[in-house]
Specification:
One of its GO terms (molecular function) is hydrolase activity. By secondary structure, the chain is α/β, with parallel strands linked by helices. The chain has helices at residues 12-23, 42-54, 58-65, 113-120, 155-169, 182-193, 219-235, 237-244, 246-255, 257-271, 278-281, 284-297, 300-303, 305-308, 338-344, 361-364, 366-377, and strands spanning 3-6, 69-75, 78-85, 97-102, 133-138, 175-179, 198-203, 323-326, 348-352. The chain is built from 17 helices and 9 strands. The longest helix is centred in the middle third of the chain and has 17 residues, at 219-235.
């Protein structure tokens, strides 16, 4: 199979329409005097919308994104967008290890780029050139430039597509896989389904999918499960509507760029390791680059499909390939015991809780992610 080169190119008409909509935004008032307590703060949203309309330079962002090698491949009959960051091979060293990095929601390929640069050319960042990776960063189905699958969106279906992309389209015989959130679920399925091809898997969000009927939860495990349930009570409002009425909220967000931005930055603030200060982690232009990509592709609604189809996901089978976890420093994973992951991963070789970097760890802490991936995969590079 072949791939086609792709460039991000947004027409002037689309940008003019976006600017016009932004300038006509109607803002709400805060429902609570406590900053952000009731959701995205209207004042901070107004600042971002104003900058989006009058200060943000999309063409500069577009040019920077197009310095990467973007490709479109047909996988399982559907177009898949991915970025290829080729590994820089050191003289006399083995070929870089292929690595597929999968983002989550409400994220994009942009999350992985800084870490991918460091992984592809470690020597440029003071590392060992022998640790180079050949990095593939796909856009999840329904996100940005990748089409929805022909059928339900499940983690297993995406894992099957990613394996076809890596082996059938790109010709890699052996590769590693990395991801968090949705990408973590996909990465788990890759490890479970293709042990003969997968050198190892690395996760930033260790999902709980254990069968407690055969072996009851320990007190420590039960305490974490109870914590997660309590956390979900206050956090799951966004997912409840996307799981049950995605088209209702999508209609609003597809028509209002300010509404789209509010929906996205609510999670960037809540799930990142920013201590409530959104712009301590994300400068305005970074947030607006992500929001603009969602807007110009009209893909916020299709990004909800994995929520609507979530009940169709089956439990992940036992994973026997080498596994690693660098645990996200977000409230949902506070206190998650290693033993829960060991119920699923029989060969858990690396467990790290750096307490830096949240839901978007590769974007928040790219050097940390690169270091962790290098350390985990270093002894796994050879198939022997």
């Amino acid at each position: 199979m072949t791939t086609e080169q792709f460039r991000i190119s947004v027409s002037d008409d689309v940008l003019e329409d976006l600017r016009d909509r932004l300038n006509r935004t109607l803002f709400t008032t805060a429902s609570d005097s406590t900053f952000w307590l009731a959701g995205t703060d209207p004042g901070q949203l107004r600042e971002l919308v104003t900058h989006w309309a009058d200060g943000f330079d999309w063409r500069k962002a577009e040019t920077a994104l197009n310095t990467y090698d973007h490709r479109i491949a047909e996988v399982a009959g559907r177009p898949v967008h991915f970025v290829h960051v080729p590994g820089r091979r050191a003289e006399g060293a083995p070929a870089p290890l292929p690595l597929i990095m999968t983002h989550g929601w409400p994220s994009s390929f942009v999350e992985m780029l800084k870490a991918a640069d460091r992984l592809a050319d470690p020597a440029a960042y003071g590392g060992d050139p022998a640790d180079a990776f050949d990095v593939i960063v796909p856009s999840l189905p329904g996100f940005l430039y990748s089409a929805l699958p022909d059928g339900p969106f499940t983690r297993r279906r995406v894992a099957e597509s990613w394996h076809e992309l890596m082996t059938g389209t790109l010709g890699y015989e052996r590769y590693g896989a990395f991801g968090g959130d949705i990408g973590g679920g996909v990465t788990q399925w890759i490890g479970a389904l293709y042990p003969e091809h997968v050198a190892g898997i690395h996760l930033t969000s260790a999902m709980v999918g254990a069968d407690f009927e055969k072996r009851p939860a320990t007190p420590e495990e039960q305490a974490y499960i109870d914590h997660l349930k309590a956390y979900d009570v206050g956090d799951q409002g966004y997912s409840e509507i996307m799981c049950t009425r995605p088209d209702t909220i999508a209609a609003a967000l597809a028509d209002s760029p300010a509404g789209l931005l509010a929906w996205i930055i609510d999670k960037y603030r809540d799930w990142s390791d920013c201590d409530g200060d959104l712009e301590s982690r994300w400068d305005k232009d970074t947030l607006l680059t992500v929001a603009t990509l969602y807007w110009v592709t009209g893909s916020i609604g299709t990004s909800f499909r994995q929520y609507y189809d979530y009940p169709l996901n089956k439990p992940v089978p036992t994973i026997n390939v080498p596994a690693a976890v660098t645990l996200s420093n977000e409230l949902a994973f506070k206190g998650l015991p290693r033993s829960l992951t060991e119920r699923l991963c029989t060969d858990l070789r690396h467990w790290s809780t750096p307490e830096r970097g949240g839901h978007f760890m590769s974007h928040e802490e790219p050097e940390q992610v690169a270091d962790e991936l290098r350390a985990f995969f270093r002894p796994l590079r050879s198939a022997s």
